[in-house]
Design goal:
73% of the residues lie in helices and 0% in strands. Helix 8 (133-148) packs antiparallel against helix 9. The termini are far apart. It has 274 residues and is mainly alpha-helical.
Length: 274
């Protein structure tokens, strides 16, 4: 049938109107027609089945025993907590102070978005892991590994895992901040540090970290502020009122920061502050 169709087409048109034949396009058209015929035949016949892998998650609430219903509720609570758990865990570490000091140092230099936010956050995460390495090792040895080995129950493992974090937060938190949240919570005066609840310790630790970070940022701003004042007064005395001071002070601040090995000093001060 296809051969007869091509023969009729050749009979209807003169040879001068068939440049595609002389160009060697006849085999290409024949192959396209055969492919189209095979596709039509496949569509008329039985369609092949495609197996696509999928993942499904179901919570069966038809359990007749309280334990079965409790397991489903625990899963729901777990997935809900996991959405905010990373932010809470970061607040319990040295990340808050480190990333704020790095951001303030970038602002003091006046380099706008250099280093970019991804670099500042990544460096903050690396320094956080470095500072928190002893705490994480303690959690791994005394809580995580015994729990994975089946030697500890889940509540006891959580308690043992929180103890190193509580010890770290107590060392970095000011007593006045803890007393503030204990007073706001209207709780009794604790006899020991272990009696202070985590709900009061965590916000006290966060505001203490914020205060320490801003104090360090203020000290970082002082030398760069002096450079800005000197450059501005010099330009005004020379009558260059229309020359932006930032255009002159930025290279001087970068030169001072590089000559003083600023990143080394900044990272060393951050790590030793803990």
């Amino acid at each position: 049938m296809l051969r007869q169709f091509l023969f009729n087409c050749r009979a209807l048109r003169p040879a001068t109107q068939l440049p595609w034949r002389r160009a060697g396009l006849l085999p290409l058209l024949v192959g396209a027609a055969v492919l189209l015929t095979s596709c039509v035949g496949m569509g008329a016949g039985e369609k092949p089945e495609l197996s696509v892998p999928g993942v499904s998650f179901n919570i069966n609430g038809q359990g007749s025993q309280p334990e079965q219903v409790g397991t489903g509720v625990q899963l729901l609570v777990l997935f809900t907590v996991l959405s905010v758990a990373p932010a809470v865990l970061l607040l319990m570490t040295a990340f808050t102070r480190i990333v704020i000091v790095l951001s303030l140092a970038r602002t003091a230099l006046g380099t706008q978005q250099l280093p970019p936010n991804q670099v500042v956050t990544g460096l903050g995460m690396l320094l956080t892991f470095f500072v928190m390495a002893p705490v994480f090792n303690d959690i791994n040895e005394n809580a995580l590994q015994p729990y994975l080995a089946g030697k500890l129950a889940q509540p006891e493992a959580i308690t043992r895992g929180l103890d190193p974090l509580r010890g770290f937060m107590f060392k970095q938190t000011r007593p006045a901040d803890i007393a503030l949240f204990m007073q706001l919570a209207k709780t009794t005066q604790p006899a020991t540090l272990e009696d202070i609840p985590l709900s009061s310790l965590l916000p006290a630790f966060v505001i203490s970290e914020l205060k320490t970070a801003f104090q360090m940022g203020f000290l970082i701003f002082i030398p760069f502020l002096v450079i800005d004042l000197v450059v501005t007064s010099t330009l005004l005395s020379l009558g260059m009122m229309f020359l932006p001071p930032m255009l002159v002070s930025l290279p001087l601040k970068l030169l001072l920061f590089v000559m003083a090995d600023g990143w080394n000093l900044l990272v060393e001060s951050l790590v030793k502050s803990f």
